[in-house]
């Protein structure tokens, strides 16, 4: 398919020269892959003291975890922006991870901290993901099936949902006892340096399965990005496609939130960087670029953080700061609409 | 043939389309005219399944549009609405290629590429094929979207105000393309038009709507009469005959 489209492009495009594009999207992807690899190698080796048999597995696990998280955040954001046909909204801005935090808080509130902590984390994860898929489906499906036409309405609803979920969580966190709270807090804070290893295998499998699902839907995704009316005109069962993608997004957000906690603007940062450098509408190119960028940012950022700043600050703070600036810049430019 | 029976659309208490029953003839150009808020676009959206109906049924060649799978309909009927904003970064060629999606599901064949080239040529976009949509003027973009719809190669082509943003030359060009599509390719073209002179000059059939209802319908020569136009638009409209076709004058 890729070849077919590529040949059409060369057929249809006038002999270029007018385009200032220096690299084709494929070359960009290769470049990003190399950068990601460099970041990973740097993270594994720079400043290593002591036995390699300890350092490599220890750091390798972290690289693995950051890769999984990077994939989850990048894919969920790009998918979400595809179905909402704009480039400002992200699952986090719409309150997805606040919903996940609420589910976790509710579990601690109902079961008690001890029970929560002693339940098999993988079982707990599966239950949380299931709850997440269910509730996000209920809440967000109607919003994206064409009922809400206005982007501002969507953002507003998202913010209201987010605040609502956070307030509910906040209320419950105040009601539980301090021990339970400590357990909960441990689960909720975004930290890329202390990723829960027990969830890594099940998360990896989950993300891989979702990736397969996404690949199967790639042509439909490209059409969905045109907006609801064009998608319907072109024969896409819009409601069904949007529901499927919301399920994927819910699963991916659960994975990333379970592993590192909520990060609001990171997805926005990588998705918009991907749109910027890929300069194509095809999700088959945008998605890998977003994934690679996100892996580069996470692992590269962690290298800088640990080696340059000596763990002085949290990566999530830097990412949120930069991401927030990008968000404001996009809003001001009005390009996201 | 497109057949609408008792089609209504209500927003709360307000009936925007009020029990429209209509048979749009197969082949040729049908124009829907009427003042703002007459329900023309809403009607077109319901016919093309973009918008659910409050009541009534629409069939296209006997297929109920609300129950037929969307991809089956997409090979039979295409629709282009007025506001087309796309966030993704697309070239004209990319956009037109999407018109083949109902046929090829993203795997373009040689035949698809011919369709794409032809549609681009039809709308005089060959030189702009590699340009991004956000680098085009409103009129060029409008033509690109029409090219996509033509590339879909459906028997029925529904266009909501296709002359929007077009200068006289391109408006005329667009109507000629529609005429050719109807005459040479045997398509059924349904247009919502505001310019009644274009409707008069190029349509085989005109449907005049007002207040959510079909007020008049008939061949252009029957609708282009001062008393009928006055009834639809609530204003004095003079009609002249030039070269055997009727032209209205309504500038004072």
TrEMBL record, chain B:
Lineage top rank: taxon: Bacteria
InterPro entries (alphabetical): AAA+_ATPase, ABC_transporter-like_ATP-bd, ABC_transporter-like_CS, P-loop_NTPase, Siderophore_ABC-ATPase
Any one Gene Ontology BP term: iron ion transport
CDD domains found in the cross-reference section: ABC_Iron-Siderophores_B12_Hemin
Membrane topology: Peripheral membrane protein
PROSITE patterns: ABC_TRANSPORTER_1 (PS00211), ABC_TRANSPORTER_2 (PS50893)
GO molecular-function terms, A-Z: ATP binding; ATP hydrolysis activity
Pfam hit, one: ABC_tran
Family: Belongs to the ABC transporter superfamily.
Protein known as: Iron ABC transporter ATP-binding protein
């Amino acid at each position: 398919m890729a070849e077919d489209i590529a040949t059409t492009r060369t057929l249809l495009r006038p002999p270029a020269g007018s385009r200032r594009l220096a690299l084709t999207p494929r070359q960009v992807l290769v470049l990003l892959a190399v950068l990601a690899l460099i970041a990973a190698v740097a993270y594994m080796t720079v400043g290593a003291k002591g036995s390699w048999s300890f350092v490599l597995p220890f750091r390798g696990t972290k690289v693995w975890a950051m890769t999984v998280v990077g994939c989850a955040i990048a894919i969920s954001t790009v998918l979400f922006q595809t179905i909402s046909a704009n480039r400002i909204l992200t699952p986090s801005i719409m309150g997805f991870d606040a919903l996940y935090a609420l589910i976790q808080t509710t579990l601690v509130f109902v079961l008690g901290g001890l029970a929560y902590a002693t339940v098999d984390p993988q079982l707990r994860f599966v239950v949380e993901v299931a709850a997440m898929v269910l509730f996000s489906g209920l809440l967000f499906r109607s919003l994206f099936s064409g009922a809400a036409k206005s982007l501002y309405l969507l953002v507003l609803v998202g913010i209201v949902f987010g605040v609502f979920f956070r307030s509910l969580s906040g209320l419950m966190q105040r009601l539980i006892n301090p021990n339970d709270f400590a357990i909960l807090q441990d689960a909720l804070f975004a930290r890329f340096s202390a990723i829960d290893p027990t969830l890594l295998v099940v998360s990896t499998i989950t993300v891989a399965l979702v990736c397969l699902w996404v690949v199967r839907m790639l042509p439909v995704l490209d059409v969905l990005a045109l907006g609801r009316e064009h998608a319907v005109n072109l024969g896409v069962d819009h409601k069904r496609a949007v529901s499927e993608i919301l399920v994927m997004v819910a699963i991916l957000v659960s994975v990333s939130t379970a592993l590192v906690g909520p990060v609001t603007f990171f997805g926005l940062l990588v998705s918009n960087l991907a749109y910027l450098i890929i300069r194509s509408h095809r999700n088959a190119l945008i998605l890998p670029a977003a994934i690679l960028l996100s892996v580069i940012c996470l692992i590269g950022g962690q290298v800088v953080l640990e080696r340059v700043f000596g763990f002085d600050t949290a990566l999530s703070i830097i990412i949120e700061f930069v991401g927030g600036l990008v968000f404001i810049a996009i809003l001001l430019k009005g390009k996201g609409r | 043939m497109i057949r609408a029976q008792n089609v209504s659309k209500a927003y709360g208490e307000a009936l925007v389309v009020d029990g429209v029953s209509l048979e749009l003839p197969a082949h040729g150009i049908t124009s829907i005219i009427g003042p703002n808020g007459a329900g023309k676009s809403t009607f077109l959206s319901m016919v093309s399944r973009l918008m659910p109906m409050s009541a009534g049924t629409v069939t296209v060649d006997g297929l109920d549009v609300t129950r037929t799978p969307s991809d089956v309909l997409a090979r039979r009927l295409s629709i282009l609405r007025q506001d087309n904003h796309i966030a993704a970064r697309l070239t004209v060629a990319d956009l037109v290629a999407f018109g083949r999606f109902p046929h090829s599901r993203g795997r373009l064949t040689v035949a698809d590429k011919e369709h794409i080239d032809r549609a681009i040529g039809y709308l005089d976009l060959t030189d702009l094929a590699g340009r991004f949509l956000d680098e085009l003027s409103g009129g060029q973009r409008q033509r690109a979207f029409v090219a996509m719809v033509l590339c879909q190669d459906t028997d029925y082509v529904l266009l909501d105000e296709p002359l929007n943003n077009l200068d006289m030359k391109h408006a005329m060009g667009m109507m000629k393309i529609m005429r050719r599509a109807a005459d040479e390719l045997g398509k059924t073209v349904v247009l919502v038009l505001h310019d009644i002179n274009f409707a008069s000059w190029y349509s085989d059939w005109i449907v005049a709507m007002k207040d959510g209802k079909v007020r008049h319908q008939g061949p252009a020569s029957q609708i282009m009469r001062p008393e009928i136009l006055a009834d639809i638009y609530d204003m004095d409209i003079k009609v002249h005959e030039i070269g055997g076709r009727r032209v209205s004058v309504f500038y004072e």
